[in-house]
């Protein structure tokens, strides 16, 4: 058999196996669309070391996937002649994406057209319809993760209108693909011609106006004709596209759904039941509740105060049970937690790993603001101390005004903590984040069990659009109230008076609402963000 014939026979047997491998490789791709005009199509020289395929990166032909090799705009359905297609930013982009996220395979849908103005890409145009059609077919092999866009050289004379146009295009692309949060990165133009500087300046404002967008900056780039990036610059700006895209993807991951647990008012003491308060039996309720919490993948859980009813030694029993929780617990100060000897009051914070009583933690776009309602109180501070005296003065003044919550078991938030709370909420509002406050005491309704200076707290933070909810305990019967600003006030059922074998809640944070899944008698709810 001749050498040529042997080679042909080998290929005949090898081909089915190769196709099998190819079929395996083109499943579950992370797909990125690369669109725009000539700089996206690529006009730079394809240097010798840029001719090889990028490992684990595939290029969409319109019907199938092939290893990604330059020129990447070869299969564009709207391109100019083949000879004009050279090195564009998609190569550097894909190479860095694969390098930084090596466990994922990448699919590129490159559909650029040199000389096109943004009007040619708007909804209803040929270019728009082509990219949507090709994207939908490509998505059968994976998930569309983002879009990179480079265009604008043809629109520099109307730079002040560009942001509005690109925002409209982004919305239309997202709507047509049914991907409302799809990351979109634009690239700045070369400033070898000064006329492009205003448009570049406008582009930097895009992330402030349109969510989930980024800008690949063009500083340090060079061109070979004052318009088209040369090869090193195409690689550079391609990598900047990738950096922006990765940051946007990380932000999305951070804001993915997550859940946390809520318990309150375990209020254990080794004493007999009084009324509905099953002080000793609450430990059994707690033991039966922990498996419910452990059935979920919780980030953490909160206990909203009154872990004990009295006596410092009582802490050990509930804390030992809570150690069996898979998720770590955060403990809020409650009035009964300080029903201990004055000499031991300063040790309570350390016992429940919350020395100061207030702090904040963040997860994704949610800020959890732990509030110390015992800050100004007669219960948490020994007689004669500053905060104890201030609490007495506050309650005396309130009593003359007829307030119904002037009780020794209620507390208030001090000025230092109030200022801190304002700063947390203002920062969250500025960053587009949401806030859940967690306190032993409710703010509303005014049922006599609410925070002593609830009105001041409401005036300082209640109107902020960042405030989603105020979660509390203290009122064992539970309560729910939505105030005029749209903030939710949810008081959870107290475990010491549980009417079910287990009691608590799982809270799942979604993009724009919370899901409360009650355990036992706790009600299920959906709390929409305002």
Task: Please give a handful of descriptors for the protein shown.
7-stranded mixed β-sheet; 6-stranded mixed β-sheet; disordered N terminus; elongated; alpha/beta; 530 residues
Task: Describe the model.
With 530 residues, the protein is of the alpha/beta class. 32% of the residues lie in helices and 19% in strands. It contains 14 helices and 19 strands. The chain has helices at residues 3-25, 38-41, 89-100, 126-138, 159-177, 197-203, 206-209, 231-254, 282-294, 316-322, 348-351, 386-400, 415-430, 454-461, and strands at residues 29-36, 57-60, 65-67, 106-112, 142-150, 184-187, 213-216, 258-263, 298-303, 329-331, 359-363, 366-370, 434-438, 467-472, 479-482, 488-491, 504-509, 513-519, 525-528. The strands form 3 sheets. Strands 3-2-4-1-5-6-7 form a 7-stranded mixed sheet, sandwiched between helices. The termini are far apart. The model is unreliable at 1-25 (pLDDT under 50).
The amount of helix comes to 25-40%
Mean of pLDDT: 92
Described by the principal axes of the CA atoms, the overall outline is elongated
Largest pleated sheet: 7 strands, mixed
| Cα Rg | 31 Å
Number of helices: 14
Low-confidence stretches: 1-25
In what range is the share of β-strand residues? Answer: 15-25%
Short description:
This protein is of the alpha/beta class. 32% of the residues lie in helices and 19% in strands.
SSE layout:
Layout: H1 3-25, E1 29-36, H2 38-41, E2 57-60, E3 65-67, H3 89-100, E4 106-112, H4 126-138, E5 142-150, H5 159-177, E6 184-187, H6 197-203, H7 206-209, E7 213-216, H8 231-254, E8 258-263, H9 282-294, E9 298-303, H10 316-322, E10 329-331, H11 348-351, E11 359-363, E12 366-370, H12 386-400, H13 415-430, E13 434-438, H14 454-461, E14 467-472, E15 479-482, E16 488-491, E17 504-509, E18 513-519, E19 525-528
Parallel strand pairs: 1-4, 1-5, 2-4, 5-6, 6-7, 8-9, 9-10, 12-13, 13-14, 14-16
Antiparallel strand pairs: 2-3, 8-17, 11-12, 15-16, 17-18, 18-19
